[in-house]
Design goal:
- The strands form eleven sheets. The chain has a six-stranded antiparallel barrel.
- The chain folds into three domains: 4-64, no CATH class; 71-320, Thrombin, subunit H (Beta Barrel); 323-626, Regulator of chromosome condensation 1/beta-lactamase-inhibitor protein II (Methylamine Dehydrogenase, Chain H, 7 Propeller).
- A hairpin with a 4-residue loop joins strand 29 and strand 30.
- Helix 1 (12-31) runs antiparallel to helix 2.
- It has ten helices and 44 strands.
- It is elongated and about 105 Å long.
- The chain is mainly beta.
Length: 627
């Protein structure tokens, strides 16, 4: 009788290698071929049958992983975890999803036990397998998964399926409504490095409206020893939930290591923080090992990374590419006439600046810009050095329309110098100041057609030569603020019926702050917020209440910190707060927030997070809610 205690001196890797070597030898004998020379049985272990070696290996794994605690979704009693599972998709090859012609499709699967020749005691052996990876919904039309699962070559041949799960102990959901099946369209971003980051963001063919979009960690790191659970499709099985795990190694920059019960097919699965239910990572390395136990096979927990644990790519590796929740869009013009765009997420991070004209078409040197969200898209108007006024749209799918000539549709009004845009009743209102000091207004209807430019002062009263303008919409009305060459600051309203109120002198009600050169405005919680820059570079803020009265001007830098002399300012609303961006005389670009309670954040250096694009000359901001 062999002494089983001798097996205790062997490592997990050595025991697993011995079982593999015996399989290699057996296959060689059956097929009459030469066994691989680098994989031969250990002579010191020949006194042991395979069964005790396998048991020793499984016992060793239990010390690290505990018992296999995978559950089907129908067995889960925690509603928060069930909610987590609603975000998970199974990845199938397109030929494995067969349209039935009646609004449903059948998932082509195999029996798990039969396909792997599993022993009778193996868990889930009678369930179907078919998925090759897992994924999860991070935005209405974006699936996150592992980089080794989907790439630019196979993306259009992948189907992302919601609902491949067990309905009860014996019934799998293999006939799926076509509305729950999505097609890969393009790779938004992807990285795959050896023993490092491994992720892919896939744009699907349409927005998902009936499943949970997960929250992902965007900044910072998961806590050491944090409890975790993973949800996915191990070995291609229907959805499984596995908890009772924790972070084992938090030192790698791009990933962390856990002791999750995972198998092949779990690649791409979301790894949830058990406390916050925020996704902390993507399960990327952890493969199934099937080893022979006589005439049938059993599976082992240990992944290809060894029993040190499973690697989970941190969501912070790709979070900047996922748009979600209240977003602040910012566009700025650098001193070389380049037009840039970035996004600030609600948690604070910014995306790198992107070159707008690289996607819209080059319109020469840009000198002025303003943007506005309308529905789920962002409209942008820009003026180039020749005074031409251009318009483009950033679609919900993050692509841009080519620039179009506004005056070509609204009428020629000469050379434009300043522009302001706003949304009223789902239409884009555009106000522009020409080099002649005239103030014009037009509307881009929801169907894309334009009204002819109208002369604003012909209806509001002549206030002299205008130098700057901005506008904001509220309750079917358009508020317009402008500065004139004598340094005065004016306000008017275009009523819902199309008539205009006379211009009113803002400083007469909010206090005289000297010669005003720049103005910006935004609606926040039904009130008009106005920011302006005086000739001495000071930045001021006031509010027009809903009843028409004005608060006294307040010194913004007195609360946010002195950043020098301001030359341009922009204001926008996002998530019920006022966002203010400004350019100082040294070309630096700054951003601050006025909270709903009236306090201000310190100014932050935008380019410190988006990348340095040189000196800026102007800026525009506005919020966009993506739910």
């Amino acid at each position: 009788m062999p002494d089983l205690k001798k097996l205790e001196k062997y490592s997990v890797e050595e025991l697993l290698r011995e079982l593999r070597a015996r399989e290699n030898k057996q296959k060689a004998e059956v097929h009459g071929i030469v066994a691989a020379a680098d994989l031969t049985p250990d002579a010191a272990l020949q006194e042991f049958d395979s069964a005790p070696i396998l048991k020793a290996l499984q016992d060793r794994q239990k010390v690290i992983y505990g018992t296999d605690n995978r559950l089907d979704v129908f067995q889960v009693t925690d509603p928060a975890i069930v909610n987590d599972a609603d975000s998970v998709v199974a990845l199938f090859q397109a030929p494995s999803v067969v349209d039935n012609g009646n609004g449903t499709s059948t998932l082509q699967t195999q029996n798990f036990g039969t396909s792997q020749n599993l022993c009778a005691g193996e868990r889930f052996r009678n369930q179907p397998v078919g998925a090759f990876c897992s994924g999860f919904l991070v935005a209405p039309d974006i699936i996150a998964t592992a980089g080794h699962c989907v790439n630019s070559t196979n993306v259009t041949n992948v189907r992302f399926v919601f609902g491949f799960r067990m309905l009860n102990a014996t019934t799998p959901q293999t006939i799926v409504n076509n509305a729950e099946i999505y097609r890969g369209v393009a790779i938004i971003g992807r990285q795959l490095t050896t023993n490092g980051t491994d992720w892919s963001l896939v744009r699907i063919d349409r927005a998902v409206t009936n499943h949970r979009i997960v929250q992902i960690r965007r900044i910072g790191s998961i806590a050491n020893n944090q409890a975790l659970h993973v949800i996915g499709h191990p070995v291609g099985l229907p959805t499984k939930v596995a908890g009772g795990a924790a972070v084992r190694d938090n030192t790698p920059a791009a990933f962390f290591v856990s002791n999750l019960d995972t198998y092949g097919g779990n690649s791409g699965s979301p790894v949830f923080n058990a406390n916050t239910h925020e996704v902390e990572g993507i399960l990327v390395r952890g493969e199934t090992d099937f080893v022979s136990n006589g005439t049938c096979n059993v599976s082992l927990v240990c992944p290809s990374t060894g029993c040190r644990g499973e690697d989970c790519t941190r969501t912070t590796e790709f979070a900047q590419l996922v748009e979600r929740g209240p977003l602040l869009h910012l566009s700025g013009v650098s001193s070389d006439g380049r037009l840039w765009h970035t996004i600030r997420f609600a948690a604070g991070p910014w995306t790198p600046f992107a070159d707008v004209e690289a996607q819209t078409g080059d319109r020469g040197s840009i000198v002025e810009v303003d943007l506005q969200s309308v529905g789920n898209v962002v409209h942008l108007c820009a003026i180039n050095s020749t005074g031409s006024l251009w318009h483009t749209i950033r679609r919900a799918d993050r692509t841009w329309f080519p620039f179009s000539d506004v005056e070509g549709q609204a009428g020629e009004r000469g050379s434009f110098a300043r522009v302001g845009v706003a949304e009223v009743n789902n239409e884009l209102h555009v106000c522009g100041v020409t080099t002649a000091g005239r103030l014009w207004h037009t509307i881009r209807r929801a169907n894309g057609s334009w009204f002819s430019f109208g002369d604003v002062e012909a209806q509001t009263g002549d206030r002299g030569s205008f130098t700057d303008v901005d506008c904001a919409g509220s309750n079917g009305e358009l508020h317009v603020c402008g500065t004139t060459s004598d340094g005065r600051l004016w306000h008017t309203i275009r009523r819902a019926n199309g008539t205009w109120a006379p211009f009113g002198d803002i400083e007469a009600q909010a206090g005289n702050r000297g010669t005003i050169r720049e103005v910006a405005c935004a609606i926040v919680a039904g009130e008009l917020h106005v920011c302006c820059v005086s000739s001495d570079g000071h930045l001021w803020h006031t509010i027009r209440r809903a009843n028409g009265t004005w608060l006294s001007f307040g010194d913004v830098e007195g609360q946010t910190g002195d950043r020098g002399s301001f030359v341009r300012v922009s204001a926008g609303e996002s998530d019920g707060e006022l966002h203010v961006a400004g350019v100082t005389s040294n070309g630096r670009l700054w951003h601050t927030i006025r909270r709903a309670i009236g306090t201000w954040f310190p100014f932050g250096d935008v380019e410190a997070q988006t990348g340095d694009r040189g000196n800026f000359r102007t800026v525009s901001v506005d919020g966009l809610l993506i739910s």
